[in-house]
Amino acid sequence: MLLLRDAVRFSWHALTANTVRTFLMLLAMSIGVGSVVILTALGEGARNYITNEFSSLGTNLVIVIPGRSETSGGDPATMLGVTERDLTLNDALALTRHPQVQRIAPLNIGGAEISWQGRKREVSIQGTSAEFLKLRHWEMSQGKFLPDTDWQRPKSVCVIGINIRNEIFGAHAALGKWLRIGDRRFRVIGILASEGQSLGIDVSDSVIIPVASAQSLFNVPSLFRIFVEVKTREAIPKVMAFIKNTLRDRHQGEEDVTVITQDAVLATFDRILTALTYAVGGIAAISLAVAGILIMNVMLVTVSQRTSEIGLLKSLGASGKAILKLILIEAVLLSSLGAAFGFALGQAGSWVIRYAFPVLPAYPPTWAMVASLLVALITGILFSLLPAKKAARLNPVDALMRR
Amino acid sequence: MIKLENIHRNFQVGDQTVHALNDITLTINDGEYLSVMGPSGSGKSTLLNLLGLLDQPSSGKYFLNGNDVTELSEDMQASTRNKNIGFVFQVFHLIPRLTAAENIELPLVLAGIDEKIRKQRVSHALESMNLIERAEHKPPQLSGGQRQRVAIARATIMQPSVLLADEPTGNLDQKAGLNVIETLEQLNQHGITLIIVTHDETLGARSTRSIRMLDGRIESDNIASWTG
Ligand SMILES: Nc1ncnc2c1ncn2[C@@H]1O[C@H](COP(=O)(O)OP(=O)(O)OP(=O)(O)O)[C@@H](O)[C@H]1O
Ligand SMILES: [Mg+2]
Q1: Does the pLDDT value for residue B50 go beyond 60?
Q2: Which DSSP state fits A199?
Q3: What percent of the residues of chain B are helix, what percent strand, and what percent coil, each to the nearest 5?
Q4: Could you give the CA distance from residue A132 to residue A42 in angstroms, rounded to a whole number?
Q5: Fewest CB within 10 angstroms: A6, A183, A194, A397, which?
Q6: Of the listed ranges A38-47, A318-327, B218-227, the one predicted with least confidence
Q7: Running DSSP on this structure, what letter comes out for residue B98?
């Protein structure tokens, strides 16, 4: 009986003796496995990115967006916020009257250059109120957040993220300094401890000022968002209805805002992106199947090229089973090597994506890695079964005659 | 001992039946030196393939050392081939990517013999075939005579009782051919049953027994007087 170790050595020898064929097969397999890994990593990365963005906002959150969306609830397009009618500070104030509303914060966003003693940076400025701190579950590292005063009154104070602090103030104490934002000056009253991403802005790169100051700084009367935190999860539908009714009344009966829950947004994105991941995974799996068929063809060619060798082995006493074993081992070696290379390729590709787009956590999901490796191995073996059986059945006399 | 009883081997070619072997009855004793001669197409190779269990008779019985080998399963036939029969071909049939030593080792590998024992037996075979310096050479780097000696070493590494050679000198010049024949005869003197198919009358005359074939039949069977 042919020993497994010797069979592997013999097959390995056959593989390495024919480098072009081996290289082509490895390439096909690697591309198949690699593309499954990379594409699913991309899909998964996009899903995680969106999920992180929105889950970091806070809990039991209802978001009011100016502009009307036809599909109620989480249409991602509405997140871009096409303004039809202004959403005003008074609108936001009107929403505080519901007993189930825990807290409310308006939000305005704009870009501006900040500077202090010649150090400059372009940042995005968030205009909001005192409640925003708790609503976002942020922590302060130094000083205080915005004061809890009348939203309508501008106040020349600001709260900055840790990156801004380090980049603009360096070794100097930041608290109490006057930071120039656009053409105005704001006194730094607090520094945020929190980090991480949300709404596309890194918390540590944030500069936060009172909402009224932002409105006059950017000269935009409308709000970008109103965040409403509801006391309990169960009360969310009621509060949403209240918001819609209140704002319709305030806007002369026009439903010109979109009210969404964070959960709905998350669920929608999650659904879309999971489907996307499966879809790209499936497409990539087709390339694996193609690789399998390629392996079958190449193995068939191999068997006919090596017919006289197979005849010889039989004349030396190899049974059909031994021939089957040799050919299958060759296929297993090839496909597992291909799978390993593909896996490395996929991991490297995912790393490149993460390196190029740091916000995108493009890690391939475990199921995709396991599945691609398994599919590679199984197709490799399955598609080699036919050529291997053909080889095992060869008539030794005929096989020896062929050259 | 080899015993063939009323062996027929027919090939169907289209609607024509070729009687490659037509009622062959033959007994070959252990240690005999037999040459098989006859015109092209007379069935010499077919007979040899059948003796080597590479081919099955259409009818008739084949006893090898008293056992009816036509009844054996495919696996058992393969293992009988491995242990009891050595083949030497006109075209050598060496695997070009393997070294001389690795080619010789193949039957031992197929038998699943331990690597240490394999190496010992291979180096012993290389020595007796005068191939020690060629051990790590691959077939394309060897002369025809050397290749055939590698093939003979491979055919005899399992110490089979029967050695079958189908025109072993057909691809060699006279000197190398003679050297190969002498090597085979030496093995025969050590007890192996040697059966050689040849077209060369002088080679045929060297054997102790010579059969002539014609149209699938044994035309004559002389135990020639040894003139060596
Ligand atoms: N696989 C086959 N299919 C059909 N006919 C075959 C086959 N093998 C051999 N034959 C026929 O059987 C007959 C005997 O062939 P064989 O090869 O035994 O002759 P041979 O004596 O070895 O000839 P040569 O001296 O040319 O090698 C020939 O007529 C040949 O055509
Ligand atoms: Mg012949």
Answers
A1: yes
A2: T
A3: 40, 30, 35
A4: 33
A5: A183
A6: B218-227
A7: S
- Write the pLDDT tens digit of every residue in B51-65: 999 999 999 999 999
- Gap from CA of B218 to ligand 1 centroid (Å): 15
Block residue for tokens 């190449």? A298
Nearest beta carbon to residue A2 from set B52, B83, B109? B109
Tokens of A63: 């978001």
What is the β-pairing status of strands B209-214 and B33-37?
Answer: parallel
Cβ contacts (< 8 Å) between B119 and chain A: which residues?
none
Mutation site for A-interface testing, chosen from B110, B158, B163 by largest number of A Cβ within 10 Å:
B110
Start-to-end CA distance of chain A, whole Å, equals: 27
What are the pocket residues of ligand 1 if the criterion is a CB atom closer than 6 Å to any ligand atom? B 11, 13, 18, 20, 38, 40-46
Domains of chain B: 31-42+75-223 (3.40.50.300)
Share the mean pLDDT of chain A: 84
Segment (H or E) for B3: strand B2-13
The pLDDT value given to residue A199: 63
Q: How many CB pairs under 8 A join A and B?
A: 69
Evaluate whether A259 touches A64 at the Cβ level (below 8 Å). Answer: yes
Amino acid at B48: L
The pTM is what? 0.70
Asked if A94 and A246 count as a contact pair (C-beta separation under 8 A), the reply is yes
What's the ipTM?
Answer: 0.93
CA-based R_g, chain A, Å: 32
Q: How many CA atoms lie within 13 A of B38 on its CB side?
A: 26
Which of A1-10, A189-198, A227-236, B135-144 comes out lowest in average pLDDT?
A189-198
Residue A62 has pLDDT above 80, yes or no: yes
Residues of B in contact with A2 (CB under 8 A): 109-110, 112
Q: CA angle at residue A86 from A71 to A62, to 5 degrees?
A: 50
CA distance B187 to A281: 64
Per-residue pLDDT band for A331 (boundaries 50, 70, 90) equals confident
Distance of alpha carbon A327 from alpha carbon A11, whole angstroms = 7
Task: Give the C-alpha separation, A396 to A179, whole Å.
Answer: 90
Judged by CB atoms closer than 8 Å, whether chains meet at A319 and B49 is answered as: no
| Angle, alpha carbons A174-A180-A182 (nearest 5°) | 145
CA separation (Å) from A98 to A193, A236, A261, A357, B80? 32, 12, 17, 42, 94
- Closest ligand 1 atom to residue B13 Cα is 4
Average pLDDT, whole number, for chain B?
93
Say if CB B133 and CB B150 are below 8 A apart.
no
Determine contact: A6 vs chain B, CB below 8 A.
yes
